[in-house]
Amino acid sequence: MLLRRVWNSLRKSSMSQNSEDVDSQELSPAENLSADVFDLILQRLGPRGSAKAAVICRTWRNFVEDERLWESFLREECGETWQATVFAETYLRAGLPLRSVIPGEFTHLPFREIYSQRAHVQRSVIIDGGSGYCKYGWSTNSGPSGRSATFLEFANIESPIHSRLKHFFSTIYRKLNVKPLAQPLVISTPICHCDDTQSAKAARQNLREAIYQVLFDMNVPAICAIDQAVLALYAAQQISGIVVNIGFQVTSIVPILCGKVMRNVGVELVGQGALRITGFLSELMHGSGIEFGSMYTVKVLKENLCYVAEDYHAELLKNTKSSHLVKDEGIFTLSHERFQATEILFQPQLGGIRAMSLHRAVALCIDHCHSFEMEKVVDEGWFKTVVLTGGTACLPGLADEYFPSGLVHNKETIPTKWSKFHPCHGS
To answer: What is the structure's pLDDT at 331?
Structure first.
């Protein structure tokens, strides 16, 4: 009712004055209100109504442009994801790599503009690539809608096959029941050809250009292709650090500074991942005389019973029996197999694997980051933030596994534990 009175007053005034004089005209019904009443009215009007109310008078426009109003609208809309939303849409809008390595130099996007952009693009299609398979779904959902074979199987990185890539993306859009031209796409690409050589750079560029060409030929309106490790770091609301991605077939340790993969520092690859842990658990179950119907059963037991022992030899002396019911298979009871299966990440020789242990690879990456000379970096300890990603990263005890002090070359600057650990559950 108050808005109607103000608007009628404004309309009558506009009949006798030019539009340039409207803002200077005193409109007592609007301008005599207290700030609390203004805020209450705008909150009741909501985002669209508040934007329209900005034309009433200068005082109302000042209130509508207040950052706190649009911050409250964003908080109400995003709920628990508020911090991640603001982080992503203020720090990351500049694209990759981020333009500044000095945190104080970031210029923030106004909350009102963020809200306006979100209103135009309410959700995106997400395709998360991996070493074993791809997960796909909607950005508004808490988890993926489905999964398929990784697109790396459909396109050799040196010479991508466009027809097979098109079939791959078309299949995903068909399963999501949406037309490609209807939604923007975010696609995460796994670490591949991690070397910093010219041939490796060219191979990565060829793959990305092939993906862009295929998707734009399908009339996708907007595409964001980003390294999987960088996206995982952003999910932990960090822009610099080391991402330990325990993938399906391989584990990658990726140093990232201000959103850019530091390939010149060195990306470490460990030739084992979740698949190898599942396989080793099946071997242990066979050795203990435990029969099972399929590898799916082993995978379920791994996800529900396995953990990482803080002290492997001390754990062997404990009673660690635990049971889990697998649908259509029955109840399975595991003992030492629960932590022996995951121990191959830190003692690969237990499974007959010739590979670097996970904590050695992380310590080596930290050592390389510490030794690497870099100018204009405010945070000299940027590499001390470690983010674990992948389904295997959800196993209990993994974040507590320590780096043996004998592996650390400089104890004064390199932490002996996961420093500033940020779990990023799932991929």
So the answer is: 92
